Each structure stands twice: as structure tokens, then as C-alpha cells.
Amino acid sequence: MTLNAEAAGRAIRRGRAVTIVALLLLAALYLLALQFTPPERFQGLAQKIFYIHPPAAYAMQLAFICVGIASMLYLWLRDERLDAFAEASAEVGLVLGGIVVLTGPIWAKPVWGAWWTWDSRLTFTVIELLVFAGYFSLRSAIRDPAERAKFAAVTGIMGMLLVPFNHLTVYLFNTTHPQPVVVGTHKPELPWVMLRTFLSGFAVFTLVYVGFVMQRYGIGVRRMLEEAGDA
Fold first, then answer.
1. Shortest CA distance to 212 belongs to which of 54, 22, 52?
2. How many CA atoms lie within 13 A of 201 on its CB side?
3. CB-hemisphere CA count at 13 Å for 227?
4. Distance between CA atoms of residues 35 and 147, nearest Å
5. List of residues 6+ apart from 120 with CB closer than 8 A
6. Does residue 29 form part of some domain?
7. Which of 64, 107, 171, 223 could bridge 49 with an S-S bond, Cβ 3.0-4.6 Å?
8. Phi/psi zone of residue 78: left (φ > 0), alpha (ψ -120 to 50 degrees), beta?
9. For every residue of 51-88, which 3-state class applies, written as one string?
10. Is residue 42 assigned to a domain?
11. CB 187 within 8 A of CB 194
């Protein structure tokens, strides 16, 4: 299948609309967390970041999984749109990763007493981000579009393989990072008023991811068309 400028424009417009809705809901999430969700009795107000940090980490991992899936499909089908989507998802994942590594230390300092500790979860997260930063370095170093897409796809698949290892680090290693209190338990350990806000954060960050990736996909397709026209 070929790239389409009209479809790219639609993706950008629709992505912009989704992003506006997502950002409004993100503001509502802040309000819900700060004003209508009680603080945790031991961590106090610092625990409020809980409603942003794990959902952002989930959306980051969702983005990287989508990169890997799109990359595998590209190697099979050789559809340029899959390469464009993988690139878009990787860039959005890096943005979300920035939110993760920013909010994590803000939460860690009052709770752990340190801004950063090189435990297994944090180390694997940094490795993931470095792999996908390398993904873009690779793309910028290769001029031929087909070769660039092929080698980037292999890198994207390798990056995706880090996602389950990152999730399992809190079970496999001695780490200061807490284990999940919702996913992986028979019954959520959070009271409903906290669980409501927590799950709302996952829904909001999913929408943020969708809006961002739609816009970035359209921009990427336009750039690829311009590149093909200049060749």
C-alpha cells in the first residue's frame, strides 16, 4: 500500500481533536486526584503522583509494544504506513517516558528519601529509553528509505522485547520499586475512591497516546512523501 497525503491530513486533524479532548480530561484527572481523592495515610500528598506516574508508564510501554508489532508487520508486508506508524509510536513513547522519569523522582524523594536509585526497574526503564533513542539515531543515519525502515523495524522489535522484562523486574530482583497493587493481585488493594482515580488515569493516558500518535503519524507520512518527491 502507498502513502496518501489526504489520509495523512485526516489523521492530523482527527489526532488534534483527540488530543484536545485528552488534555481536557488530563486536567480533570488532576482535579479528581487533588480535590476528590483522599491522600494515602503513610505517603501523604506525595502519593498523588501515583495517579499520573503508573498510567504514564503504562502508556509508554503500550507505545513501545505497538512499535514492535508494527515493525514485525512491516517486515512481513513491507507497507510503508506500518513504518510510519512505528516511528510515530516510538516518538510518543519517548515523550511519555520523559513524563515517567520526571514524575518518578518527584514521588521517590519524599517516600524513599532519594531522587534516584539504580534499582532494576529504573535501570531497565532507562535501557528501554536508550534503545528507542538509538532507534531514532539509526533512522537519521540511513538515507535509503527501505533500508532505514528495515533496520529500524529490527531495532523496534528488540526494544519491544524489553517491555515484559521491565514488568517482571519487581518480581525477579530485590528492588525498592513497589510491586503492583492492582494488576497481578486477586483483588485490588486500593479502596474504590482511589481505584476510580487510578483507572481513570489509565484511560486518559491511553487517549493521550492515541491523539499524539495520530498526529505524529500524519506528520511522518507527509515527510516521507516529501522525501520521495525529492528523490
1. 22
2. 22
3. 15
4. 52
5. 169, 170, 172, 173, 175, 177
6. yes
7. 107
8. left
9. HCHHHHHHHHHHHHHHHHHHHHHHHHHCCHHHHHHHHH
10. no
11. no
The CA distance from 10 to 16, in Å, is 10
Q: How far is Cα 182 from Cα 189, in angstroms, rounded to an integer?
A: 6
pLDDT at 152: 98
What does the DSSP 8-state code read for residue 42?
T
In a domain, 192, yes or no: yes
For residues 4-16, one letter each, b for 16 or more C-beta atoms within 10 angstroms of the residue's C-beta and e for the rest, the string is: eeeebeebbeebe
Task: Tell whether 41 is covered by a domain.
Answer: no
pTM score: 0.94
Q: How many structural domains is the chain composed of?
A: 1
Cell numbers 500528598 correspond to what residue?
A: 45
**Residue 93 — very low, low, confident or very high, per pLDDT cuts 50/70/90?**
very high
Confidence of residue 184 (pLDDT cuts 50, 70, 90): low
CA-angle at 208, arms to 207 and 213, nearest 5° = 100
Query: One-letter amino acid identity for 29?
Result: L
Collapse the DSSP code of 188 into the 3-class scheme (helix H, G, I; strand E, B; otherwise coil) and give the result.
Answer: coil
% of the chain with per-residue pLDDT over 90: 70
pLDDT, tens digit (0-9, with 9 covering 90-100), for 115-162? 888 888 889 999 999 999 999 999 999 999 999 999 999 999 999 999
Range of the domain at 13: 7-34+48-230
Joined grid coordinates for residue 14: 482527527
Q: How far apart are CA 48 and CA 67, in angstroms?
A: 30
Query: Which amino acid is residue 37, in one-letter code?
Result: T
Residue 184, all three cell numbers: 497481578
